Amino acid sequence: MIKNSYVNKYIAESKKSIELISKTQNKKLNQAADLFCRTYFNNGMIYIFGTGHSHMIAEEGHFRAGGFAPICPILSSSTMLHESATFSSQIERTKGVASQLLDKYNLTSNDIIIIISNSGVNQAPIEATLYAKKRKTKVIGISSLKYSKKINKNKKLYQLSDLHIDNCGPRGDAVIAIKKYRVAPFSTIGGVAIINSIISEVAYKLRDENPFPFYISSNMPNSKVHNEKLFAKYRSRNPHL
Question: Model-level pTM?
Fold first, then answer.
């Protein structure tokens, strides 16, 4: 191993932050797992909303090998980055966009919505949070407390969420200092670790369910029959299946 390699520095910083999530957010991660299970037994859905790069975490929870079947991402090309990154950055700060997008999904009091925003202050995630609360949909927020508390805004995701989970990332997201700059963001790794740690606990709690409500990789034996059972249950409520 090359000593003082910046490859190693990034991995070390990421490990440090993930260990901090495990140490400081464990109780909340287990509370989220309990909410997931309650939602499952109430025949509800778990929606995941994130604009910009946070949408990758929403996709991580959707239709993955080992992914939880009731998860549905909130996706719109205007809030993602593949068509125009600058336009998407404007959109996530524009009033009314999140409400129009969420109108396309039927959020109810039986559902959960996970709202992901590293800064936790932009217009779209705050608007989505308030929209969901009007629908009596339980809100789980994921953001960086260290970042959010340094921004002068009246409404912040960690204050408005029913349950907030700190991704334990730094202010500005990037973790590696190069001269006066910082590079290599952490929030995607942190968000994915949070989502999959919750899913792991949920899978254990639901281990006796039939069918087991988690997708099997399409390349594994008997996956088609198993996954089709889950499609039949959730296809009508998840427009992205």
Answer: 0.91
